[in-house]
Amino acid sequence: DLYLNIPFVSAAMDTVTEWRMAAIQAKNGSVGVVHRNLMPLRLAEELDRTKFSFIRGINRRPVTVKPEDTLGEILQRRMEKGYAFESFPVCDSKNNLLGLVTSRHFQRHKKDLSITARSVMRPFGALHVAPEDTDLPSAYNLLIQFDVKLLPVCKSKEDHTLIGIYTAKDVDYVMSGKADLYSLDTNGQPRVGAAIGCIRDPDTEERIDILSHKNANFIVIDVAHGDCKAVIETLSFLREHYRDALVVAGNVSESEATERLICAGASCVKVGIGPSSICTTRVVTGIGRPQLEAIMRCAKVARRHSIPICAD
Asked: What is the pTM of this model?
């Protein structure tokens, strides 16, 4: 259920894929898998950075600021988080839209960044705001009609709860077809996967919960030897608690192992144990075989179940 324009996935290794690589993969029509050698909160941050590195549709989770935040505090947060954008909706504690702070405000008041967002923001009454049911073509027309770069979306004229925000650049990319190559999810955000260990590990359940809330597009159970009880248990847990999750399980190199993972609930099977000279898994476990033969054996079983495989 996940289609790529380029059938290429960057590895869940700490020397390969964090948010920058994942974002580049999505821009090229492929996808990255953020590695698991991160603390859970850092993993959440990597997924956020990937999802908001570029957005080609409505941003349903815009980064907002409080009215009492100073311009200096907002700029500091922007630098720490690595945000590429310079405009921020100003919302109260109930997420009601109060106004908008843009790059012009930061430029105009750069000599006094202690000033608050409330005192400089463009107030709600001066904004062009769209209702909740505004789709992409309608947003495109409104952005052109009002000649604005940002179009906040609220529940209704009476209810100012912020639902999301459209940006002219993002909408134009979609409407003009420039984003056709990109690997995007249904929210118009970059697709990204993330790796976990087995359910026996102490923080795996927390990681899975984070991936669910951060809209990771798929989960990779990342272990050297995937045909083991711990991986089967992890698949069983995911199918019980996160029934619709797309799960890549592996690594395996045998047809029987592929069958076991598919029957346990794998959406895709990762093939390859010890095919390179640097890998010691075949030596340590006695499991593995040359890669071409492994792919042929595993693909034959996977095809019978209409389940894809991926391979190094």
From this structure: 0.73
